[in-house]
């Protein structure tokens, strides 16, 4: 079966800065993604359908929309959210109404009860990751020539499948990540 991989990387600096999605096959080389998994210190989100990690404290005040956030939610359905969990399984177009503030890697009806695919997450100040995040932000946003990341949050949806899927559909979605980057600038 042809392996389909999805990658969505979103960089945020106070506000939404960039979203990119590529689709290719087979599964990517690890260097295409930020390191993820328990071996690098990730936590695993609870197995669920339309749930989340619950409120995850972060060690920075992350500016997003109109306030600085000290916690976030990693939602099974493919988004990082602030203020509250997102159980909605069908995506809405941005900009979002109400008080919703999301970083969407791939907003869809993921269900981790269906197979062994899992959602991983962590915050990090690893120097290699900070250098990489700084470089990618500067490349994507050429006006930020002096951008220097001081904190990164990585959420990775690895081999998750959709609501209604099964272990035989576990490769239908390979991996996608959402990256939040903080800077002192
Ligand atoms: Ca779901």
UniProtKB/TrEMBL annotation:
UniProt xrefs under InterPro entries: Epithelial_Barrier/Signaling, NIDO_dom
Limits of the NIDO domain: 105-185
Any one GO biological process: cell-matrix adhesion
Alphabetical list of Pfam families matching this protein: NIDO
Entry keyword annotation includes Transferase: no
Signal sequence, start to end: 1-24
PROSITE patterns in the record: NIDO
Keywords of the record: Signal
PANTHER family: MUCIN 4-RELATED, SUSHI DOMAIN-CONTAINING PROTEIN 2
Protein name, UniProt field: NIDO domain-containing protein
Organism in which the protein naturally occurs: Ridgeia piscesae (Tubeworm)
């Amino acid at each position: 079966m042809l392996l389909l991989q999805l990658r969505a990387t979103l960089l945020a600096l106070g506000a939404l800065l960039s979203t990119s999605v590529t689709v290719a096959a087979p599964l990517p080389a690890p260097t295409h993604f930020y390191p993820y998994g328990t071996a690098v210190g990730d936590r695993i989100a609870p197995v669920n359908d339309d749930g989340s990690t619950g409120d995850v404290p972060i060690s920075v005040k992350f500016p997003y929309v109109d306030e600085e956030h000290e916690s976030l939610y990693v939602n099974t359905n493919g988004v990082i959210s602030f203020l509250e969990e997102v159980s909605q399984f069908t995506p809405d177009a941005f900009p979002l109404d109400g008080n919703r503030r999301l970083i969407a890697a791939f907003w869809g009806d993921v269900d981790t009860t269906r197979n062994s695919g899992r959602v991983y997450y962590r915050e990090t100040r690893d120097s290699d990751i900070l250098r990489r995040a700084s470089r990618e932000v500067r490349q994507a946003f050429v006006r930020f020539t002096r951008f220097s990341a001081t904190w990164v949050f990585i959420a990775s949806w690895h081999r998750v499948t959709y609501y209604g899927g099964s272990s035989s559909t576990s490769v239908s979605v390979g991996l996608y990540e959402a990256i939040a980057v903080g800077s002192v600038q």
